[in-house]
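call fold(seq) -> tokens
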Amino acid sequence: MQEVFDFLKKCNTYYLATVEGDQPHVRPFGTVNLFEGKLYIQTGKSKDVSKQIGANPKIEICAFNGEKWIRVQASAVSDDRREAKVNMLDAYPNLKDRYSADDDNTQVLYLKDGVATISSFAGEPKVIRF
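ret:
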């Protein structure tokens, strides 16, 4: 899982895919954090992405670092604990002007049953399960 975190962190931006009905939705994300041995992402509960994950927690992430790309399949599980929110906001202090660990909007989610595949045009893909 550390390798997955490091890859996404170095990319700065990754793309998160959800589904609504039969329509996929992809958008850029930038938050990724390790907390209590789990990989976390963050969003706002008022956003469509939160509603889509609530209806269908299966997500996919994709990022490219210029040489290799990663695809992560997982289920996103909401963690409403204040400690998890504080940890994420401490890792991304620039979010504190829009989010708070004590508001009703901040949502942190950990990735469950994750399968990451790191690929390139040369060599075999590397699969990491977490």
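The chain has three helices and eight strands.
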